[in-house]
Amino acid sequence: MIVMRHFYFFSSAVLLASCSGESNDISADVDSTQTTTNRLPFLGFHDVQYIEKNGIQVADTLYHTVPDFALVNQNNALVTGDDVKGKIHVVNFFFTHCPAICPAMIKQMQRMQENTKDVEELIFLSHTIDPERDSLPRLNEYISERNIDTSNWHFLWGEREEVYLLGQEGYMINAMEDEYADGGFLHSEHFVLVDREGHVRGLYEGTIPARVDQMEKDIRRLITEEYGN
Length: 229
Fold this sequence. Notes:
- It is a single chain.
- By secondary structure, this protein is α+β, with helices and mostly antiparallel strands.
- The chain has one domain (about 10-40, about 65-225): Glutaredoxin (3-Layer(aba) Sandwich), CATH 3.40.30.
- It has helices at about 80-85, 100-115, 135-145, 160-170, 210-225; strands at about 1-10, 15-20, 45-55, 55-65, 70, 80, 90-95, 125-130, 155, 175, 185, 190-195, 200-205.
- The protein has a five-stranded mixed sheet, covered by helices on one side. Strands 1-3-4 form a three-stranded antiparallel sheet, with no helix packed on it. It has a three-stranded antiparallel sheet with strand order 2-11-10.
- Strand 7, helix 2 and strand 8 form a beta-alpha-beta unit.
- Helix 2 packs parallel to helix 5 (about 210-225).
- The two termini are about 35 Å apart.
């Protein structure tokens, strides 16, 4: 068996944006309009295994998969990879004291949630990158202030290093402390579209309505064309 590793359709640099709203994204936004194939792209490293079947070398692709995780939500309930397994989900990173892009991202996520009420499997995951200040009471206060519907939306809390690593190695976007950024953190403004198998299928600027609209189209396309329902 021969294994080859590839990095498909994605810059090796993670995506960054400061809370001033200035994007440090060095690559184009990735969505379905940038691929000539009929399927949404699979983002990240993937392994190609060549296995001999009936005397013929057959390629079997193993796509990048978000690793398992265990975080707690606003209700102090444990949320793990098993809770989103077999379900399409949308992911972002934020913090409640963010002065600029986070409120716009959360507003767009709310709009997305409202527009996809008919997609019963869809789950939203928002990870705080400021666990010291974003306690569970603070997360619930934030939710209440914005009248957020949490029926399919988890606001997730975890240890700083765990969340940062999950963003970088799992979802391929970055989140970190930065004393020079507004609010003290540097993080991606992108929403991440993850399929039922845990593969990253799209990145969309969460502050731009047109990009968020494209993500909704891609979710519906994914369900219809790849899952047949």
